[in-house]
Sequence to fold (300 residues):
Amino acid sequence: MSKSLKLIVEALLFASDTPITVRDIHSCLPDSKASDIKSALEVLKFEYEELGRSFVLKEVAKGYQFRSRSEYGSYILRMLQTSPNRLSRAAMETLAIIAYKQPILRHELERFRGVDVGGILRTLLEKDLIRIMGREQLPGRPLIYGTTKRFLETFDLKDISSLPKLKEIKALGSEEYEPTPADEGEASEAQAGEVIEEPHAVGDEVTEEAPSELIAEEPAANEEVSAGSEEEEPTPAGEGDALEAPTGEVTEESPEKGDEASEEEHVEEIEEVSLASEEAPTGSEKDEPTPQSEEETPEY
Fold:
């Protein structure tokens, strides 16, 4: 390979604003062999890497192109006074499906995403990231979509086979979310804290529920006592039994209930009840007539 061939190839690369292939260079240099042109490209690529320049020679979209290093991109955008083209999340999802599933129909895209993709397809076509590859032999002759060379240039890919495989994406995701030893230590401390706090939570429940149970039992006991006192009230049928019942209630229930009445009131009630019982005539005295009543009855 002559020195002039390497410089000619370098000049062609510098003048081209799109990636240039070996076939394109060979069409400009018919006297040179394709193998010599490829060797010249590899030498140039190695030299720029060794020099550590702000740009490199990269193989993209099945061709070769000078590309600035990413760390200098902000300065270039400042000079050009333009903002980088950005795609929405929906557009990126649609573009990824087309890239991995091409050739693909519109209804297949909508089945994957679950929404209409007509507007997104128009945007991607305007940005020259996808193209219409033809029509499917189906009723209505639907359009077939695929990616373009511009897509490979934008995402710095040599060809479609350079896209990351599904296994690589899963491995990358597992590495990003792999727990670190510090996270594991925090998780163990959190579990230990939960174990220590459980007995306190149980104790709090007991202390909070116990008073409510006691409060619920006290009205029940008071209702039973009031019910018992109502059942023992005297009835008009038996006055003797009614007179004896209050004495039993006063003498037996007053110590157990602990009423607020004083002892003097209880004593007065007992004396009144005893006097009333002595004065009241019994049933047998009323039924038996006295001899005096028989003698005093006049005979006519």
Remarks:
- Residues 12 and 72 are 24 Å apart (CA to CA).
- The radius of gyration is 54 Å.
- Residues 89-176 form a domain with the Arc Repressor Mutant, subunit A fold (CATH 1.10.10.10).
